[in-house]
Amino acid sequence: MKITHHPDAASLMSCSAGSMPEAFAAVMASHISMCPSCRRDLATMEHIGTALFEKLVPVSVSRPAPVAAMRALEADVDEQDARLAVIAGDVPQPLMAAIGAHLDKVPWKRVGPGVWQHQIALNDPSRGELRLVKVAPGQALPEHGHRGNEMTLILRGSYADASGTYKPGDVADLDEDVEHQPIADPVEGCICLIAVQGRLRFKSAMARLVQPFTGF
Amino acid sequence: MIPTLVTARPEGRGRNGSGLISMADFLQRIAERGDVEAFRKLFQAYAPRVKAYMMRQGADPNTAEELAQETLLTVWRKAGLYSGEKGSATTWIFTIARNLRIDRLRRELSWVELPDGHDEEPSPDALPDELLSQQQRKLRVQTALATLPPDQLEVVSLSYIEGLSHSEIAERLGLPLGTVKSRMRLAYHKVRESVEDLK
Ligand SMILES: [Zn+2]
Questions:
Q1: Predicted confidence (pLDDT) per residue in A147-164, tens digit
Q2: CATH (residue range A9-214)
Q3: CB 3.0–4.6 Å: which of A128, A190, A200, B186 could bond A23 by disulfide?
């Protein structure tokens, strides 16, 4: 897999800080699991977090080390096994818990001609939405009025827009106000994972009236 | 130019020199034989800092203390997953604290794994070299951070220490989102440059 479109370094930093809204963190984690180059950047960025963490003025703790609780715990071997297990499939490892290992087994819901989607439930939808979208060959990806940042990871097939062609592993990390109308590959179509910013930008009653348009 | 951040560190630089190796040793001892004394040492060294971190992330002192306890318990539980070549003990513990914070304070999934999660290229290099370069890398990053323009350091700290998203930082500082992102990028470029010649 040759990845040519990477997320913004600012997004990687936010990810390394643990400060990304969950929908975006999911897209980032999936890309990172496929991209050695971003993993290297992330490793450098972890040092930033560590350096700032070390600079914090410690706050004394009032309770001692939880030795009793520790003794009640066995070493966590299960978790290690789970992590080492490799499942053959086409879903990035971080997403497997949410959607399984095979894109073909996702419970797709048709939302228009040649367009299917599957919403991945997140704890706090106000901080962003995460969905898988499948688009038939040659079809335009649905217009979804940019109301903020948007991040797309290609999982199968490809799409093209004015900024280039996006293939599996590629990420389109878009600011608000970016106009784009991607077209899915004429042969393979496209399956992608999309995070969009939550609705916090629309706080006025006026804006709420407009809101129904923003779903696919 | 004076690396103000480094000199402002409460325990100075000396602790770093040996800190990494001995803390990693404690982790090793916990992993290998469930060494409770090693755990107490680790707890003393890290719990107060994890508590401080949690408070900066918005937890009240009580919750912060609970989360510090839980972070160190996780360290105990997962010590077997820690591997010295892949990162300093502090980085590893910080990552555990970070993930716990996402889970508990935000009730979200952390998604991004611990740094040891998926490195497909285990390094066969000599361990002392690895540790040395880790150590150098860490010092270089500290120095690079210390020489950042204050406006860049500010957004980086808000992101890493206060846990704010780019949009939240933009709102807090009354800046356009694009400005927040470009300050983050500039800061990272400086940090990356500072470690580029290291493996
Ligand atoms: Zn990448």
A1: 678 899 999 999 998 889
A2: 2.60.120.10
A3: A128
Domain boundaries, chain A: 9-214
Q: What is the pLDDT of residues A19-43, one digit of tens each?
A: 999 999 999 999 999 999 999 999 8
Asked if the Cβ–Cβ distance from B111 to A22 is below 8 Å, we say yes
Minimal-distance CA residue of chain B relative to A22: B108
How far does B98 lie from chain A, in Å, by closest CA?
6
Q: Tell me the shortest Cα–Cα distance from A189 to chain B, in angstroms.
A: 27
The whole-number pLDDT of residue B30 equals: 87
* Ligand 1: centre distance to CA A34 (Å): 8
pTM of full prediction above 0.80: yes
Query: How many whole angstroms separate alpha carbon A92 and alpha carbon A162?
Result: 27
